[in-house]
Specification:
alpha+beta
Amino acid sequence: MSYNQITDAGAFASNVVLGRTCETRFLEFKGEYRWQKAKHAHEDRAGQAVELCRDLAAFANRDGGTLFVGVTERDDGGRK
Protein backbone atom coordinates (compact mmCIF):
# COMPACT_ATOMS: atom_id res chain seq x y z
CA MET A 1 0.00 0.00 0.00
CA SER A 2 1.42 3.39 -0.91
CA TYR A 3 1.22 6.55 1.09
CA ASN A 4 0.68 10.04 -0.31
CA GLN A 5 2.98 12.29 1.68
CA ILE A 6 1.52 15.40 3.24
CA THR A 7 4.20 17.96 2.54
CA ASP A 8 2.29 21.18 1.96
CA ALA A 9 -1.03 22.92 2.58
CA GLY A 10 -2.59 21.51 -0.59
CA ALA A 11 -1.77 17.93 0.33
CA PHE A 12 -3.06 18.57 3.84
CA ALA A 13 -6.35 19.98 2.53
CA SER A 14 -6.89 17.03 0.19
CA ASN A 15 -6.09 14.37 2.81
CA VAL A 16 -7.28 15.76 6.15
CA VAL A 17 -10.64 17.20 7.18
CA LEU A 18 -10.42 18.33 10.77
CA GLY A 19 -13.24 16.88 12.81
CA ARG A 20 -13.78 14.06 10.32
CA THR A 21 -10.50 12.42 9.46
CA CYS A 22 -9.65 9.46 11.68
CA GLU A 23 -6.27 8.12 12.62
CA THR A 24 -5.07 5.47 10.21
CA ARG A 25 -1.96 3.44 9.60
CA PHE A 26 -0.57 6.59 7.94
CA LEU A 27 -1.97 9.35 10.16
CA GLU A 28 -1.34 9.77 13.88
CA PHE A 29 -2.70 12.58 16.06
CA LYS A 30 -1.03 13.71 19.27
CA GLY A 31 -2.46 16.51 21.35
CA GLU A 32 0.92 17.19 22.86
CA TYR A 33 4.16 15.73 24.09
CA ARG A 34 4.72 16.89 27.66
CA TRP A 35 8.40 17.57 27.93
CA GLN A 36 8.29 18.88 31.46
CA LYS A 37 6.12 18.84 34.57
CA ALA A 38 6.62 20.39 37.98
CA LYS A 39 7.68 17.15 39.69
CA HIS A 40 10.08 14.57 38.28
CA ALA A 41 10.76 16.58 35.13
CA HIS A 42 13.58 14.29 34.00
CA GLU A 43 11.32 11.21 34.08
CA ASP A 44 8.53 12.95 32.16
CA ARG A 45 10.92 14.24 29.53
CA ALA A 46 12.47 10.80 29.06
CA GLY A 47 9.09 9.08 28.85
CA GLN A 48 7.79 11.56 26.30
CA ALA A 49 10.98 11.23 24.25
CA VAL A 50 10.52 7.45 24.19
CA GLU A 51 6.89 7.86 23.10
CA LEU A 52 7.88 10.24 20.29
CA CYS A 53 10.60 7.85 19.12
CA ARG A 54 8.15 4.94 19.12
CA ASP A 55 5.61 6.93 17.11
CA LEU A 56 8.20 7.90 14.50
CA ALA A 57 9.76 4.43 14.37
CA ALA A 58 6.35 2.89 13.72
CA PHE A 59 6.05 4.99 10.56
CA ALA A 60 9.66 4.35 9.55
CA ASN A 61 9.24 0.58 9.92
CA ARG A 62 6.15 0.50 7.73
CA ASP A 63 5.19 2.56 4.71
CA GLY A 64 5.61 6.07 6.11
CA GLY A 65 3.08 8.40 7.61
CA THR A 66 2.37 11.79 9.10
CA LEU A 67 2.36 12.69 12.77
CA PHE A 68 0.23 15.73 13.64
CA VAL A 69 1.24 17.24 16.97
CA GLY A 70 -1.28 19.66 18.43
CA VAL A 71 -4.28 17.79 17.02
CA THR A 72 -6.36 15.96 19.59
CA GLU A 73 -8.47 13.02 18.52
CA ARG A 74 -11.94 12.74 19.94
CA ASP A 75 -13.87 9.65 20.89
CA ASP A 76 -17.04 9.74 18.84
CA GLY A 77 -19.39 6.90 19.74
CA GLY A 78 -16.63 4.38 20.39
CA ARG A 79 -14.80 5.30 17.23
CA LYS A 80 -11.83 7.64 17.36
